[in-house]
Design brief:
The complex is a heterodimer of chains A (302) and B (371).
Chain A: E1 3-14, E2 17-28, E3 32-36, H1 43-50, E4 58-63, E5 66-67, H2 72-78, E6 79-82, H3 94-104, H4 109-120, H5 136-148, E7 154-157, H6 166-181, E8 185-190, H7 193-196, E9 201-206, E10 209-214, H8 216-221, E11 227-231, H9 235-244, E12 248-254, E13 257-262, H10 267-276, E14 283-286, H11 291-301
Parallel strand pairs in A: 3-8, 3-9, 6-7, 7-8
Antiparallel strand pairs in A: 1-2, 1-4, 4-5, 9-10, 11-13, 11-14, 12-13
Chain B: H1 2-17, H2 21-39, E1 47-53, H3 58-69, E2 73-78, H4 82-90, E3 96-100, H5 104-109, E4 117-120, H6 125-150, H7 175-206, H8 208-213, H9 219-249, H10 257-267, H11 269-281, H12 285-302, H13 314-319, H14 324-338, H15 342-370
Parallel strand pairs in B: 1-2, 1-3
Antiparallel strand pairs in B: 3-4
The chains are: A alpha/beta (302), B mainly alpha (371).
């Protein structure tokens, strides 16, 4: 077995609150593995355990073949970790931050520059600017550069795109793709469901529990419910009304539309129902589920 | 070792860029020495006095002129009733009121005993004692001169035992000479303690400590990288402060400067350790400052900076074993003013060494548990 990561029955409590319950995840080398779930779901706790910053109450985590508690030093040399919050030195310049992290990992910037070239080249004009004065996207690029400078085998990114503009987000994921092509294993968490599609496999975590692990495609393929999208002028009124309809269970807002699952009846009958109750201008259509729909469906059935 | 050097280098870059820390390091010694030394001076320089002279005679005016010519006394006003006297003290216009009774001159001429009344504001007991002593001294001098100058008689020499005291180590009883070394202790301790605590807790607040923790940097390297810069700064502060004290106040340096630095080198581990301990126990700068404020005040009051430790109750002297300042305070005065040697300061050196080891151990324990 050549696993980059293997968690067995991982549990962690903070006081009375259970942050992680019985988590089992295996990640293969070279995989781009996403962890998605709402805020406070346990993503960060899981990542902190894997990054050897936290000791689990129960269970066991093997990172790159090393035990996360006993061999934490071996792990630290081989992983790159980017916490959710920008955690570089604000009062050091871009260049100084990079130099500092390369020196604590005892690596030569010049020698490893190829690793970060695509990211860091965009930062070069700001090399002498203090890190605290960078924009959000730039900070994220610097943090990624510092996490990559020692050529880690595994990259752990905790919500790297939170608070970053849409263009930078796409750029960032392109960078991850090219890192993956170079053979790096990447573990990334995100609250954005649309980003999940770009992962090889995803794990869904909610309230510390693992709901599902698979590729985004098979997640969608396994979705068997008839899913519809409805839209009208006032989507909140529509949402309230749809909740009253007897054949509908699982109604939720998704963007500008209201998604719902229709059971037992054809949607012609629903249109008749709308007309009878004089709901006015409502358009509905059957749709393909997205990762978000799958996630909500999994969440509700729990 | 190289890692440690990088950490220290990083720390110095950050300190140099910090807009509050750098001025603090250079301005604090000047401010503390210049302002505190004068402000904490217990010598009375301008005692304000008012006079209620019921005699209004040549003799009473002669007496009052003695007060007038004293550099320590400032005339306030002439009073004309007992109510005036009371008011003068109550309003704080006068620190002391001198009441000369009617018939003062006559009694003196007739060689009868006569009473002069001092009413002293006793709110500040130390100041009141000094004021009374000064006032009595002047009265005594006047009395001794009575024979020769005024009555034009032979000077009457006091017979019997004469006490002539010589004050060693500080012959002029210059308060500044006593205060400057004490302030230096405060200075280096506070710099080491507060800067270390704030610095580490800041890394926690910003989250940089998290990023450092996933690197191969070991905890002891990280902690040494934090302590070493502030240790160096404290040593620099001592040299800087000593130089200021020498130039501004002419504080004597009788003992070995090397011995003083050796003691400080060991001593500094204690405040640095406390700073580290406090930062481990706190999550943000406010908590650190609150802890520091509480302990600081207690430690300073009990350190022997203003009041001798020997006059504190026994239990307080035991509590002082926990007070790092109390180890250094006597030593710096002994070395600078008395020229004490290594063996003289050895007990305190051993004491503070043990103290430092214990504090550093506790701090590293607390640090490990939290992070």
């Amino acid at each position: 077995m050549n696993l980059a990561l293997s968690c067995t029955a991982l549990s962690k409590k903070f006081g009375e609150i259970s942050a992680l319950q019985n988590i089992n995840i295996d990640v293969e080398r070279g995989e781009l593995f996403g962890v998605i779930g709402p805020d406070g779901g346990g993503k960060t706790t899981l990542f902190r355990i894997l990054a050897t910053l936290l000791i689990p109450d129960d269970g066991d985590a093997q990172v790159l073949g090393f035990d996360s508690i006993k061999d934490y030093l071996s792990i630290r040399k081989r992983i790159g970790y980017m916490p959710g919050r920008f955690s570089l030195y604000h009062d050091l310049t871009v260049k100084e931050n990079l130099q500092f992290y390369s020196s604590v990992f005892k690596v030569d910037i010049e020698k490893n520059y190829g690793m970060i070239a695509s990211v860091y080249d965009q930062l070069k004009p700001f090399a002498n600017r203090r890190a605290g004065k960078l924009s959000g996207g730039m900070k994220q690029k610097l943090a990624l550069s510092c996490a990559l400078i020692h050529k880690p085998e595994l990259l752990i990114l905790d919500e790297p795109t939170t608070g970053v503009d849409a263009v930078s987000r796409i750029e960032f994921w392109n960078t991850l793709d090219s890192l993956k092509e170079d053979g790096m294993t990447i573990l990334v968490s995100t609250p954005y469901m649309d980003e999940a599609n770009r992962c090889d496999r995803i794990a869904m975590i909610q309230k510390g529990e693992l709901l599902y692990v698979d590729s985004p495609k098979s997640l969608i393929d396994n979705y068997s419910e008839p899913l519809f999208a409805a839209s009208s002028l006032d989507r909140f009124v529509l949402l309230n009304r749809l909740e009253q309809v007897p054949w509908i269970d699982l109604v939720y807002l998704c963007g500008q539309e209201v998604h719902f699952v229709l059971r037992d009846v054809k949607h012609d009958k629903l249109l008749e129902y709308f007309k009878k109750n004089e709901w006015g201008d409502v358009t509905i259509s059957q749709i393909q589920p997205t990762v978000e729909d799958c996630f909500i469906s999994l969440m509700k059935t729990r | 070792m190289r890692t440690l050097l990088f950490l220290i280098q990083k720390e110095f870059i950050q300190i140099a860029r910090n807009k509050t820390m750098l001025p603090l390091i250079f301005i604090m010694p000047i401010v503390q020495l210049v302002i505190l030394v004068y402000a904490a001076d217990l010598n009375m320089k301008s005692i304000e006095y008012s006079v209620f002279d019921l005699d209004a005679s040549h003799a009473s005016r002669e007496l009052l002129s003695h007060y007038d010519s004293s550099p320590f006394f400032d005339t306030q006003e002439q009073l004309f009733s007992d109510e005036d006297m009371e008011h003068s003290l109550k309003s704080g216009e006068a620190d002391i009121v001198i009441k000369i009774p009617k018939g003062f001159e006559k009694s003196l001429m007739n060689n009868e005993s006569v009473e002069v009344q001092f009413l002293v504001d006793g709110i500040n007991n130390a100041a009141a004692v000094i004021t009374t002593a000064y006032a009595q001294n002047i009265l005594l001098k006047y009395h001794n001169n009575l024979g020769s100058s005024w009555l034009n008689l032979q000077e009457v020499q006091a017979k019997g035992i004469e006490i002539k005291s010589r004050h060693w180590f500080n012959p002029e009883l210059d308060f500044k000479v006593y205060m400057v070394p004490g302030i230096l202790v405060l200075l280096v301790s506070m710099i080491g303690w507060i800067l270390t605590a704030l610095n580490i807790v800041r890394e926690k607040e910003i989250g940089t400590i998290e990023q450092i923790n996933v690197t191969p940097v070991r905890k002891y390297q990280f902690l040494l990288g934090k302590l070493a810069p502030f240790w160096l700064i404290a040593m620099f502060e001592l040299a800087f402060g000593l130089l200021l004290g020498r130039i501004l106040f002419g504080v004597p340096i009788i003992g070995s400067v090397g011995l003083l630095f050796l003691f400080t080198a060991v001593y500094m581990l204690a405040p640095l350790g406390i700073g580290l301990l406090f930062s481990s126990l706190s999550n943000n700068q406010q908590q650190v400052m609150f802890l520091t404020f509480f302990f600081n005040l207690t430690f300073i009051m009990m350190s022997g900076l203003f009041t001798p430790v020997e006059s504190m109750p026994n239990w307080a002297q035991y509590v002082n074993y926990l007070n790092p300042l109390a180890y250094f305070m006597p030593v710096i005065r002994m070395v600078l003013l008395k020229g004490s040697d290594f063996l003289d300061v050895l007990p305190n050196l051993i004491g503070i060494a043990i103290y430092s080891v214990v504090v550093l151990y506790l701090a590293s324990l607390a640090y490990r548990k939290r992070v």
